[in-house]
Design brief:
Blueprint lengths: L7 H5 L6 E4 L7 E4 L4 H10 L5 E2 L9 E5 L7 E4 L8 H4 L8 H15 L6 E5 L9 E5 L7 E4 L6 H8 L7 E5 L3 H10 L3 E8 L4 E7 L7 E3 L34 H6 L2 H7 L55 H21 L2 H17 L6 H16 L1
Amino acid sequence: MTQLRSTPATAQDRRLVQTAVKGPTADSQDAVFLPFEHDAALEFRQEHSGVDFWCGTVNGCGRQLFTRIGDEKIPHFFHRGENEEQCRRAQRNRGRLDLEAPIVWAELKPWRQGRDLPEGQVDFFDPIDRHDARYMHISGPVGTRDTRIVLGDVTIIQVQQDAASAQGREWDWFVHERNTEVREILDRQGIAYARIKFVPTAISATLQVFLSTPDNVGDWGRISRYVPAPNRAPRPPKPAPPMTADSRPATARASVAQRTAASGPARERGNPFARMGPPSQLAPLRGLDGGPTREPAFAPGPPRPRASEPTGRYTFAVRVPAPRSEEQIANEFKDAIAHLKEALVLEDRKTVARCARRLRALRKAHRESLSSDDNRAIKTLLRQASTS
């Protein structure tokens, strides 16, 4: 594993821009990522000699960017001659995730044009105070079909309202596979949507869409092959569980003060022994006070054997996940390793813990398919995450 040439001050500087778009103007959508490694960053600068870099107009300020490669900080882009306080991405750096917005916009423009829809205007939402709640609107003229893209794995209220609204059935939806909350809302509303993911490359990433097939298995492919499915009827609400003896409210018992307050005939009616006289006038009870005894009619038998497995009231169906190909598993490993490396560099403890759990679960589930070198590299990376 390549070691970064950095100092502790590197991780404390969280205002470093790691992504840009390259091209003649700021409206370009060819998004690139500047590697964290010092040698790889120098090679990146040499390969892109004479190329202009921009902050981008989808999720950035649109100003020109320049590369900075030193020994004290990790390689990054910076705004020359301008105050970086004016740029949102300099305030909240999301690392490689900032590639996703321009990539989506570059892929959806020809997709919308292929469906005779206007290019539209894109609006990007990314609350700085939330972990990852990125949300995109592509709106066209009145009477045309809009597009909504949910990139983050944290759902903000605006996304929930849009997904649950009546207009949500008239939009095209693209939801990241990690955001299960929005997918559940759309499934409940019967709204068709496309699951998307990003496969990282050396200096960029590719967008993939899950393409359903008639056998409901499907596979990942390019967005140009995606055709939205028709909406379904909304899912009916779940019925309330039936009332059982355990769930019925218990009858309230009178308090001690209320019971002791009863007197006279009412007390006698409540206590049947009050009219039986003093104990000296009572006949000897059977088996007590020298009275006659009687053998029990039935002797106690052995205890009833208990069933080894108690039968429950409800049965649950086990949903078996669809098998995945070796290429899909390899892409998942690459994605998990890339995100964990990025989180380690930024020293974001929450993100490091989340990425480490994901990579550890993948390694446990597919340990047999890993080579010894890959397994050793993953163990080293997880050990580094546990000590960070």
